[in-house]
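2024-03-11 09:14:02 INFO worker-7 job=invfold-0412 stage=load source=structure_tokens
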């Protein structure tokens, strides 16, 4: 395996583990005071699912980037669709059951998922910053005397000094 892959994988695993422990602690604390219903899924089941799926999606993206593929958008989208299918399969026993109040369980599944996803974007941005910085193209808004246009380029094609990098 590639050293870059291993380094990023270990770093992400530690960050994900810390984030998961913090989320479980906060979620358990809030549920202790505010949730009065009996839940179908325990917190640890939900967080183990999120932890494993997040680690798998990140591993695919990290592997693609570490072998030199810079076009990882398709892998990310396929992994995200797979994650959605797995989430439906995970929730299927709840949805098919005769359990009376299903809303708290659905909230307990998707609220941590949303928080984790938003945190994951911050972590990913830091992990793949070198890949992002290597891209020479910037969005440049060029204001020429006769027209205003938005153009993708690494240099301004307008003779006017009124070009600004966005």
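2024-03-11 09:14:09 INFO worker-7 stage=emit residues=166
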């Amino acid at each position: 395996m590639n050293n870059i892959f291993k380094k990023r994988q270990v770093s992400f695993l530690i960050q994900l583990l810390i984030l998961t422990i913090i989320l479980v602690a906060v979620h358990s604390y809030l549920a202790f005071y505010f949730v009065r219903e009996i839940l179908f899924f325990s917190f640890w089941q939900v967080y183990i699912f999120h932890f494993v799926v997040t680690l798998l999606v990140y591993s695919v993206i990290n592997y693609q980037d570490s072998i030199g593929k810079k076009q990882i958008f398709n892998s990310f989208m396929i992994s995200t669709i797979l994650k959605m299918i797995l989430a439906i399969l995970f929730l299927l026993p709840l949805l098919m059951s005769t359990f009376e109040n299903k809303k708290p369980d659905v909230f307990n599944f998707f609220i941590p998922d949303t928080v984790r996803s938003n945190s994951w974007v911050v972590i990913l941005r830091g992990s793949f910053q070198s890949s992002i910085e290597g891209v020479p193209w910037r969005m440049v808004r060029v204001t020429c005397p006769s027209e205003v246009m938005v153009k993708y380029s690494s240099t301004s094609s307008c003779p006017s000094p009124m070009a600004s990098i966005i």
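2024-03-11 09:14:09 INFO worker-7 stage=report msg="The CA atoms of residues 57 and 82 lie 9 Å apart."
2024-03-11 09:14:10 INFO worker-7 job finished
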